[in-house]
Amino acid sequence: MEQDFVARTALDEMVESDRNQMLKAMIPYLPASGQQFLSMYAKTQELINTMTLFKNRKNYPDMQAASLSMSDPMEILQDIRRCCGGEKRRQIDQITNLIAVIQMIKIMNEEPSGGENP
Length: 118
Description:
By secondary structure, the chain is mainly alpha-helical. It has helices spanning 10-15, 18-26, 32-55, 61-69, 73-81, 86-109.
């Protein structure tokens, strides 16, 4: 069975570190008490990094630039699609296809520009 690649979001890329990812990868191999502690530690580190990110927002223009340039619903859906898999990805594909069909119908129903009026 083919497995979908799920990308990290822009926020995750800014607040997660490779070190934290490695810690989270170790969690299933620890006893229950170790899993709980390491999970809480990793998520706390992400929360601290997120608070720091928004406190020093001037240092991260990427988040602001993305919000200004991403006004097209199709672009937004494609960006969201990268970050999910399975049924959610199929649902986004269906929505994208529906929007494309609607756009094609609008184009077909537009009056021809220029030329003679029938």
